[in-house]
Amino acid sequence: MVQRIILLLLIGSLGPAVHAQTGTLSGKVTASSGALPYATVMLKGTSWGTSTNEEGLYIMDKLPAGTYEVQVTAIGYRPAQRQVEVIPGSDITLDIRMAEVNASLNEVVVTGTRTERRRLESPVAVNVLDSRIFNLTQSNTLSEGLCFQPGLRMETDCQTCNYTQLRMNGLGGSYSQILINSRPVFTSLMSLYGLEQIPANMVERVEVVRGGGSVLYGSSAIAGTVNIITKEPEESTYTLSSTSSVIDGQAWDHFLNANVNTVNEARNAGVSFFASHRDKEAYDANGDGFSELAELKNNSFGFNSFFKPTERDQIDVNGWSIQEERHGGNKLEGPADRADQAEYRLQNNLVAGLNWDHQLRSGKASFSVYGSAQSTSRTHYTGIDQSDGWGNTKNRTAQGGFQFNYSLPDFFGGSNTLTAGAEHQYDYTLDEIKAYNYLIDQKTNLTGLFLQSDWDISPGITVLSGVRANSHNNVEGLTLTPRLSAVYKLGTTTQFRGSYARGFRAPQAFEADLHIAFAGGGVSLIRIDPNLQEETSSSFNASVDYNKASEQMIYGFTLDGFHTRLYDAFVLEEIGTDENGNQLLLRKNGGNSTVRGATLEGRLNYDQRFQLETGITVQQSRYDEPVAWSAEIAGTREYLRTPATYGYYVLTLLPQSRFTASFSGVLTGPMQVPHFGGAPGVAEDVLYTSPTFVENNVKLAYRFTIKSIGKDLQLSTGVQNMFNAYQRDFDTTQYRDSNYVYGPARPRTFFFGLKFGLM
Fold it and tell me: pTM of the full predicted structure?
């Protein structure tokens, strides 16, 4: 009996003792958008785990004492790990902040409003292309990655030198304004090859505004604005990567990239360096001895830095250089002027920018003072049968401005941010080939004054209104470009947007005018009508944006409709030949034209097992009256080289695991392509309707962790354009029409690569 009493006393005493050996862990899981519901909180290597409630709170009690690795996962967010020590009898609070995987869904953007705004709250629709897409699609350059955005299409326009242009919402490259770190120093001359020259490892993200919603940046933003944000230092890391590709089993294309970021302990200064080297062999698609893809040698280097001398000041300095040698045609082993047909470019680009942001003591006002500049020097050759086609190009651009922001927290029941500023841009272009009597000697000065109101009328309604007054040396008087945008937020899932904007393009030389094509055994030159007047536009956009997050899934879609009316639209018409027999095209004012259509994009992430991003655009682009592009055949109302349908997809399996498989593709529908006669088998000018192309790619990657040094090594391989959807009817010999190019930029290409560093 006594033994039983002692045993019961011992058992009863164990309860408090066991409880005294345990503790409680609780906290809140948040993200940039606020509390994060349905996140999974686990103690790694144990069976202990729970989920956060709708307010992002979690709790685990009666945890045995010890040290644990807390792992938090949530759909759409990067896994987070924290170490915690459970002390007997303690109540430990551990709050965890998660970083978004799909950062473009609601990250901070600046392009739509010239001030920082959450993407889903911005009254102007902004799409974001981040470095993740470049990696998944094996896009080594900016031009290769831009096609994986809704409403955007990259186009190659020369069989010999492979110059490219970005088409947005059905309009040509000169209708889109390209910014570098929010500054318009990406000139028409740079646009010829610049998008292909910029390596992807230089780019942090690309912000895209389709339609006229960014007229506050100045002229040539009729189709939209593309803002290239270079790599920004956030923490001290480094990455080295190498990729080798073989094009159709014939030509090698090698990339070597390096990125180094460093941030000081106080986190008030940092710098990001990036460097890239490319060496690509020429590729001949039809075996006639003339290249379809030019030989390239490219070296790029740059930096982006910040310094915060006080809590209210930040100074940003960035700069980069690109040196490229490009050679296409035949007899590439010798000088360009010894070939039957050749284009040669030796180009040097230098770009620099400085920005000072200051927050006033009141916290309601801030201002920015900024400046940027670029210099391009180019030696070039364009000739047939060893003619004297040598020329030189100089392009200098300088831009500076001032912007003031003032917040009114109590403005008629809501809040309002007023933005005002002024900026000036100077651009000088000299492009000359004496043998062809070809000369572009152009100076432009553009001064702009802008005013904007970003008014949050209520938590669900924001109205953005603004106007810019432009003074251009080639346009009489002031040109006003107003815009009005609004967003209505229906709960946390849906946003309705609408916008109107006016835009203009000044009468000056654009990138197409700086390219000399071949046709029928001669060259094709563009002249500018001395009576050319500015082109103006009215643009309307309306969209609905829906995104829903559940415990295992994120999904959403965006439907955007656009309508742009162009007045006195610029057109090209054949006007005969010069004294040397070279074809002449005249850039002149035509009539009016209309571009309208709709873009549907969708996104889905299921349980981090697969992720799908896709978009398709259907549109119509027509002049009011036919345009006679050739003197031999009747004109057409349809825009040339403009498909009525185009789109893309990116499907990723296991997007956050060590092994990742990604599938991607680009759709290009039929379009009308002008084909000048003169090449063998092409007796006369023809307007050709191209077939539909679907370019499909696959990439497999596996990441190892080298534990001894704490670094990652990733191996990758894959194939681009795996079914070889490629143009089959290139012209041959030196008498080819070099602008007769359409469809995907490359044939089937196998690649393999490695990446080393902190990933």
Answer: 0.86
